[in-house]
Every structure is written in structure tokens, then in C-alpha cells.
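Hi R.,

Here's the chain you asked about this morning:
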Amino acid sequence: MNKAIANLAQALSNWKQHIGFAVLWCTVISIGVAYNLNAQGWFLDENFAFALLPFTIASLAAGGLTTWFAEAFISNKPPLARFAFFFAALCILSIGITALIFAVHFRLSFPQWSAPLFSFKWLERTFFSMMSASYLFSVVGFRLLMPWGLVALSVVSIGFSRGWFQPSR
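And the predicted structure, written out as C-alpha cells:
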């Protein structure tokens, strides 16, 4: 446990690289989602920016967290393990954080039908409404990340496995 915390702390010292990759990942995902939204008939107006915002926030957080965890736990492993870890972590964090943002927004949209705060009924409704919103994002929103998100995910995972993003220790 102490070694894991020490690895995370040491990896945090390379914060400029983590922020740089997070901004790059955020830019690529935002452009891909914007392209897909535009192809589906969305117009460039104020609603377009609000539709793009959850993907932008989530990809920024996922990119930074993935490079931080990858440098801390997997940077000295064989290339195949680095590729698998980076691919899975970036995919899960990008989709998971976006689904969480959609779920919280969905839950906050219906507070008037809620029970008293922190009651059993409130916890039950919160849990199931957030689970259903996450499912809805997984089914409907996931296709916004395709195909550009998958291509970008593959390229950066290969790059990490080949040492393109080496920590400066």
C-alpha cells in the first residue's frame, strides 16, 4: 500500500506531461464528438456547446488520471501490458466519467419528485435514476465517441506502449 502511494506521489511530479496529454485527449475527443453531433443534424449554437461540455470535462479528467495511473503503476512493464492497461483505463475512465456526469445531470433534473434528503426512498430513487441514466448514456451516448474516439484511443495506447510518453525521471 505504501509503495502504491509512493508511486502515485512520484508520478504526480510529472504533472506537466499529464496535463498536456489530458488537453490533447480532450481536444481529440471534443472534435470527434462535435463532428458526430454535426453529422446528426445539430447546429452550431449555444445548445451545441452544452451538448459537448460533458464530453469535454470527462475526457480532460480521464486523460489526466490515466496518464497519472499508468506512469505510477505500469510504466516499467512490458509493452503489451502497458498497451492493455492504457487502452482499458482510458476507455473506462472516459466513458465512466461521462456517464457519471450524465447521471448527475439526470438526477438533478427531477428533485421535485424526490423524498426527504437522505431518506431510504431518496437513496433508492437516486441510485436507480443514476443507474438508468448511466445505461441510457451507454446505449445512446457511446456512439458519439465512435469511430474517432476508438481510433484515437488505439493510437495513444500504442504510443504509450512504445514509449512515446515516457516519464521524465
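The chain has one domain: 2-161.

Let me know if you need anything else.
M.
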